[in-house]
């Protein structure tokens, strides 16, 4: 979505995305960075997939709960980050890459911040699960919603021009070559 005839809609859409994104990040920060009052803490897990294997050994119900929590914690970012960007005509792969990279950076920041919180430990598997959750949410929701919004916009205002299809502004000006001074 770019500013055009319905620029106010774009602004409201982006503002809603930013507000929901900030609310979600505050909730995630509260959930993950508050001190826990526990008599002991487990050791940090820096070996990929070791925690997931340990969760799977606890049985299917407990494993589903623990892995599901890891997948769902940052999954809304997969939808909220593109919503805050407010673009309708963008490459799906570029959008996915940007969203997953941002989700990964946010998850890494949370894990690093947990090192200073009593009762919280670093777990590389939560980084993997959080990033996977962001990617899955993006893949399941964003392309479908963008296609729906593009169809709705086309129905109201005709075809949506792709940025590459816009009329050019003329030839690129060139500077004539000038010889080198002696």
What brief labels describe this structure?
single chain, mainly alpha, 6 helices, extended, 182 residues
Polypeptide structure, described:
The protein is mainly alpha-helical and 182 residues long. It is built from six helices and no strands. Helix 4 (77-85) packs across helix 5 (92-113) and helix 4 packs across helix 6.
The biggest sheet amounts to:
none
Low-pLDDT stretches are: none
Number of helices: 6
Tell me what portion of residues adopts beta-strand conformation. Answer: under 5%
TL;DR of this structure?
By secondary structure, the protein is mainly α.
What's the arrangement of secondary structure elements?
Blueprint: H1 7-33, H2 50-56, H3 60-73, H4 77-85, H5 92-113, H6 124-157
Helix pairs in contact: 1-4, 3-6, 4-5, 4-6, 5-6
């Amino acid at each position: 979505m770019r500013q055009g005839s319905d620029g106010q809609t774009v602004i409201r859409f982006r503002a809603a995305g930013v507000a929901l994104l900030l609310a979600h990040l505050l909730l995630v920060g509260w959930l993950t960075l508050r001190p826990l009052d526990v008599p002991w803490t487990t050791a940090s897990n820096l070996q990929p997939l070791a925690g997931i294997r340990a969760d799977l050994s606890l049985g299917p119900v407990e494993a589903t709960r623990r892995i599901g929590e890891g997948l769902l914690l940052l999954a809304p970012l997969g939808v909220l980050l593109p919503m805050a960007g407010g673009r309708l005509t963008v490459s799906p792969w570029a959008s996915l890459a940007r969203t997953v990279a941002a989700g990964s950076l946010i998850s890494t920041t949370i894990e690093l911040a947990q090192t200073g919180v009593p009762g919280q430990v670093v777990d590389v598997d939560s980084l993997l699960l959080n990033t996977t959750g962001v990617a899955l949410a993006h893949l399941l929701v964003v392309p479908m919603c963008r296609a729906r919004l593009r169809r709705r916009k086309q129905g109201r205002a005709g075809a949506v021009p792709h940025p590459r299809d816009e009329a050019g502004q003329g030839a690129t000006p060139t500077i004539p070559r000038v010889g080198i001074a002696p």
